[in-house]
C-alpha cells in the first residue's frame, strides 16, 4: 500500500473518522482507524461500539492496500506535519510516513473487523444539513442524562403527516422542532430514537451547503452526506407521548424581546443558589415582567417591558431550563404562554404556535411556597 495526499486533506479526513474512535476502552479495535486505498481515493473507517464512520478523500494511489493505525497516534503525527504532500507506505506491517523533511516509522495493527457500512437499496429521507444541524441544536440540550431512562437520553425522530418532528424531553422540559419535509411514503408513521451523541457528532461533521440522506437498516440508521457515512444504533425503547404533555390552553400571554430575557436570566443567576436549582421568580403585571432571585449572599431584581394579554401571574422556574429554551428560539421576539403558577410555560417564536411548522419549548414551573 502506498499513497500521496495533501497534509490538510488527510488531517480533515482523520478528524472526521476520530468521531467514532473511543477515548476510553480496553477494546483495541475501537482505538484504531482503518485505511484503505483503491483507484484514486483513500477511505478511512472507525468504529467505537456505538457508531461507525467512513469517509473518503482524493489521493494519488501508487499501490492499493489497507492498514490499521492507532487513531490518537496517526492524528498527532499528521497534525504536526508541515502543510505539504504526505507519502504513506505500508510494507509487511511496517508503516512509513514522510512529509518534507519529516519521517516516521510505525508498526501496523492487525485489523480483524473492517466493519464496513452497507447502504440499503431503498429510497432515503433527505434533509438539508443546515436545517438538520439547527434542529439538532434546538433539541439536544433537553435530553435526559439519566441512563435508567434510556429512551429519554436520545432524540425522537418522528415522521408524521408530511413532517419530521424532532423531540427531546427529560421530565422537566420538552423541546420540539417541526420540519416540513417530503419523504418516501413507506416512512410515514415511523419513528426512531437516535442517541444524542450520534446526532451531535454528525452535526459537527457535515457541511451546511450539502444534504443528509437517512436510511433505515434493521436496528441501525445510516447517514450519508458528501463523502462521509455514519451508522448508528437506534434506542429500542418506547418514547413518552409528548403530545399529551403539550397542551396550550393559556390564560396569560406575553411577547417580549428574546435578547432582553436571555440577559436578564443570565444576570439573575449570578447570585442564585445551585442547591435551589437556580430558582427565579417571575411576576407579570401591567405589561412588566419582574424577574427576582435571592440567596444567602444577596438578591437581584430585573424588569422587562412586555406586551401582556390576560391575567397577572406569579410563577417560578429553574433559570437555566428557561434560558436554554429561550436561546433555542429563532426569532428576535418570543411569546410565552401561561395558564397558572402550577402549569407549564410554553415558549414559541413570535407569531408562532404548536400547530405551526416551527419550534415549541415547554418548561415545568417550580412550586412556590406560600
Automatic annotation (TrEMBL):
Q: Which InterPro entries match?
A: DNA_clamp_sf, DNA_polIII_beta, DNA_polIII_beta_C, DNA_polIII_beta_cen, DNA_polIII_beta_N
Compartment annotation = Cytoplasm
Q: Where is the DNA polymerase III beta sliding clamp central domain?
A: 127-239
Give the DNA polymerase III beta sliding clamp N-terminal domain ranges: 1-113
| SMART domains for the chain | POL3Bc
Q: What are its GO cellular component terms?
A: cytoplasm; DNA polymerase III complex
GO MF annotations, alphabetized: 3'-5' exonuclease activity; DNA binding; DNA-directed DNA polymerase activity
Claim: Nucleotidyltransferase is one of the keywords in the record: yes
Main location (coarse class): cytoplasm
Q: Which UniProt keywords apply?
A: Cytoplasm, DNA replication, DNA-binding, DNA-directed DNA polymerase, Nucleotidyltransferase, Transferase
What is the top-level taxon of the source organism?
Bacteria
Q: Please list the residue ranges annotated as the DNA polymerase III beta sliding clamp C-terminal domain.
A: 250-367
A biological process from GO: DNA strand elongation involved in DNA replication
The entry's family comment says:
Belongs to the beta sliding clamp family.
Q: Which PANTHER family does the protein's record reference?
A: BETA SLIDING CLAMP (PTHR30478:SF0), DNA POLYMERASE III SUBUNIT BETA (PTHR30478)
Provide the function of this protein: Confers DNA tethering and processivity to DNA polymerases and other proteins. Acts as a clamp, forming a ring around DNA (a reaction catalyzed by the clamp-loading complex) which diffuses in an ATP-independent manner freely and bidirectionally along dsDNA. Initially characterized for its ability to contact the catalytic subunit of DNA polymerase III (Pol III), a complex, multichain enzyme responsible for most of the replicative synthesis in bacteria; Pol III exhibits 3'-5' exonuclease proofreading activity.
Q: How does it assemble?
A: Forms a ring-shaped head-to-tail homodimer around DNA.
Entry protein name? Beta sliding clamp
Give the species this sequence originates from. Anaerococcus prevotii (strain ATCC 9321 / DSM 20548 / JCM 6508 / NCTC 11806 / PC1)
